[in-house]
Automatic annotation (TrEMBL):
The keyword Hydrolase applies. This is Family 43 glycosylhydrolase. Residues 1-28 form the signal peptide. GO terms for biological process: xylan catabolic process. The record marks D177 as: Important for catalytic activity, responsible for pKa modulation of the active site Glu and correct orientation of both the proton donor and substrate. GO terms for molecular function: hydrolase activity, hydrolyzing O-glycosyl compounds. Keywords: Carbohydrate metabolism, Glycosidase, Hydrolase, Polysaccharide degradation, Signal, Xylan degradation. Pfam families: Glyco_hydro_43. Belongs to the glycosyl hydrolase 43 family. PANTHER family: ENDO-1,4-BETA-XYLANASE, PUTATIVE (AFU_ORTHOLOGUE AFUA_2G04480)-RELATED.
Length: 333
């Protein structure tokens, strides 16, 4: 931990050895680790956080989120950076200095949309949606770091996916929301898309495609936000369904499909037209991490906030519908 991490910046003040005092402008700008304690859902109220992706590594959960920075009543995404938080119990979170921003991709013009971080061979790969500076539309870049909190650096120097690589739809935002998983043999797959769900294998270096871009067929009302996880013999593909978005899911024995649609997993999340999920196992429980627009008084579709609730399976491997709560979860032990 850095020297300044002995400060805990909480709700506009600093707690140090039991004392608290106001944050001066200079202190507010310092890249301190900030400790935030969740008291229910949403888990963070000191800033808006969206599009959660989570990684479990060495006894901690690393939570990656886009920073919703739209001013109150502004109707549109303003997202200039991603954020990273870590926790040993999913209640007390440490916010680390900003690990990555679209400006770190020299070929991108902005928009820190949904992303996903995965570890392979001791390196951490961050797949990020951004707007491409010269090719029309959204694109996916890859950044890499030696540890889960970064700082991350562009791993390629150009986009991994650009809009002109997928021509099935005329929309310019179909190449968004990457989700990456390794199968049991170590083959990496990346899923992404809006309206159409694409997937492709990645080479072991994690920064090149390993084969053609393919499409997942027969997923009803696929909008965006794929997340793929495995439990026992089953792969689960959850995704944002319709718009405003619910979350639905499908199951398969193979990442190449066929995927069997299983139904709605989560309802529309309060006060937000998007509903972007991550699913992880941690200390014996399964967690459904998503965002809503629930922070008063300015929360909404462009000022979203991450929430966490439990996810439970049925005996046959299907998933029980998520119960969104305002109380949230208990400390993971
Ligand atoms: O945050 C911008 C976009 O909204 C994400 O890429 C989508 O998943 C949706 O949440």
């Amino acid at each position: 931990m850095k020297l300044h991490s002995k400060f805990s910046k909480i709700a506009g003040g600093i707690a140090l050895a039991g004392l608290s005092f106001a944050v001066t402008p200079a202190m507010a700008n310092m890249p301190a680790d900030t400790v935030v304690k969740a008291t229910g859902n949403p888990i963070f109220t000191h800033k808006y956080t969206a599009d959660p992706a989570a990684l479990v590594h060495k006894g901690k959960v690393y939570l990656y989120a886009g920073h919703d920075q739209a001013a109150p009543r502004h109707e549109g995404y303003v997202m200039n950076e991603w954020l990273v938080f870590s926790s040993e119990d999913m209640i007390t979170w440490t916010e680390h200095p900003v690990p990555l921003a679209p400006k770190d991709f020299k070929w991108a013009s902005g928009d820190a949309w949904a992303s996903h971080v995965i570890e392979r061979n001791g390196k951490f790969y961050w797949y990020s949606t951004v707007t491409h500076a010269t090719k029309p539309g959204k694109a996916i870049g890859v950044a890499v770091a030696d540890n889960p909190i970064g700082p991350f650096k562009d791993a390629i120097g150009e986009a991994l996916i650009t809009n002109d690589m997928t021509t099935d739809t005329k929309i310019s935002w179909d190449d968004i929301d990457p989700a990456v998983i390794l199968d049991d043999k170590g083959q990496a797959y990346m899923f992404w898309g809006n309206t159409i769900l694409y997937y492709a294998k990645l080479k072991e270096n994690m920064i090149e495609l390993d084969g053609p871009i393919q499409k997942v067929a027969n997923l009803p009302h696929f909008t965006e936000a794929p997340w793929v996880h495995k439990r026992k013999d089953w792969y689960y593909l959850s995704y944002a369904y319709q718009f405003p978005e619910k979350t639905a899911y499908a199951m398969s024995k193979s990442l190449d499909g066929p995927w069997e649609y299983k139904g709605i997993l989560n309802e529309i999340a309060g006060n937000s037209n998007t509903n972007h999920q991550a699913i992880i196992d941690f200390k014996g429980k399964t967690y459904f991490i998503y965002h809503n627009g629930g922070v008063q008084t300015d929360g909404g579709s462009f000022r979203r906030s991450v929430c966490i609730d439990y996810l439970y399976y049925n005996k046959d491997g299907s998933i029980k519908r998520i119960q969104m709560t305002s109380e949230g979860i208990k400390p993971a032990k």
